[in-house]
Amino acid sequence: MYFDNSATTQPYQEVLSAYRKASESYFANPSSFHHKGGEAERLLESARSQIARELNVKPEHCFFTSGGTEGNNMVLKGAAEARKNFGHHIITTAVEHPSVMETCVHLEQKGYRITYLPVGSDGRINTKDLHKALERDTILVTIGHTNSELGAVQPIEAIGEILSSYPDIYFHTDYVQGAAKIPLNIEKAGLDFVTVSAHKFHGLKGTGVLYKHPRTMLEPLVHGGGQESGVRSGTENTAGAAAMAKALRLAKERYAANSSRIEEIKKQTAVRLQESGGVINSPFSGGSPFILNVSFPGIKPEVLVEALAERGASISTKTACASKNSEPSAVILAATGERKLAESAVRISFSSDTRKEEAVHLCSMCEEVLPQLKKVMEEQQ
């Protein structure tokens, strides 16, 4: 049983078929001038148009990347470098994905000032804090859409409304956990950059898209052949792009059709885990139906993850990009303020394919395992 869909999802069979067909028939370099290259380029542009249609933006504003980490780095480093003569202040939150947090730390070392907005117990920022944080030399606000550990969804449109009075400030959101699952009107929200990664919605790893508004400037991370209008040089992954377009369309359809059912599974799972001594960290309303974060105080999360894995269930501790870090979850600590909860949090993440019977079985496993683990912990103390 797989409950780690926020780390990655299983590719749809239709996606794998699309990738294989594109790899076999459209293998040429899309930058080549010959006939085969032209065929590959047309498939690449068709994929771009399909993805743009699903995101409700223009194709010429979508640029292919390798995924979320690259997209976030492109925006933060690229915007900072391109706008260094206008200012050195960036605003983000205390609960961002490592690909944003670590990049902010890197920029601090380069002389930029970063404001990390606090979050409430629901994992969301207070927009009044954003108002207060804005400075004359603020060049970028980057706030993730759906938190990868809590499932909290930030008020992106309200933030965009505030920033509409500050046209010189770029607005970026990491939409990696929200794409295909939680609707986002990119233009209405006034977003300048949006990061998307395909393997979070049943596409393939190593493929992603960055939405970039034409008013913005980005210093490229990689220089070379000038592909993707110079925003991201390097031969495009044509087959991966075709597969991503297929995955995004299918995932939007299936997640929309199943979100209420998954929400009910999440609620029932939360209730049973609370009865087993769990403390629910995810917000009870306004959050993603697909992410449930729960702490079992006194139990080390990696021990619980391993015990469940031995019984055939896969859950996770923190976001996968930070799961090998033994420190308590910075996200849970920021939201709850309680170290004991941050030290014992696990994440259960669902997909549109998750069945109720699987969640019920997972809860039964926890009811069996938790008393055993508690007894061991007490004996060690």
Task: Write the H/E string, N to C.
Answer: HHEHEHEHEHEEEHEEHHHEH
What structural class do helix, strand and pairing data support? alpha/beta
Question: How many distinct helices?
Answer: 11
User: What is the general shape?
Assistant: globular
Residue stretches low in confidence (pLDDT < 50, at least 5 long) are none
Structure description:
This protein is an alpha/beta fold. Helix content is 42%, strand content 12%. The chain is built from eleven helices and ten strands.
In short:
The protein has 381 residues and is an alpha/beta fold. It is 42% helix and 12% strand.
Set down the secondary structure blueprint.
Blueprint: H1 13-25, H2 35-55, E1 62-65, H3 68-82, E2 89-93, H4 98-109, E3 113-117, H5 127-133, E4 138-142, H6 156-163, E5 170-174, E6 193-197, E7 208-212, H7 238-275, E8 279-280, E9 291-295, H8 301-310, H9 330-336, H10 339-342, E10 345-349, H11 356-380
Parallel strand pairs: 2-3, 2-4, 4-5, 5-6
Antiparallel strand pairs: 1-7, 6-7, 8-9, 9-10
Helix pairs in contact: 1-7, 2-7, 3-4, 7-11, 8-11
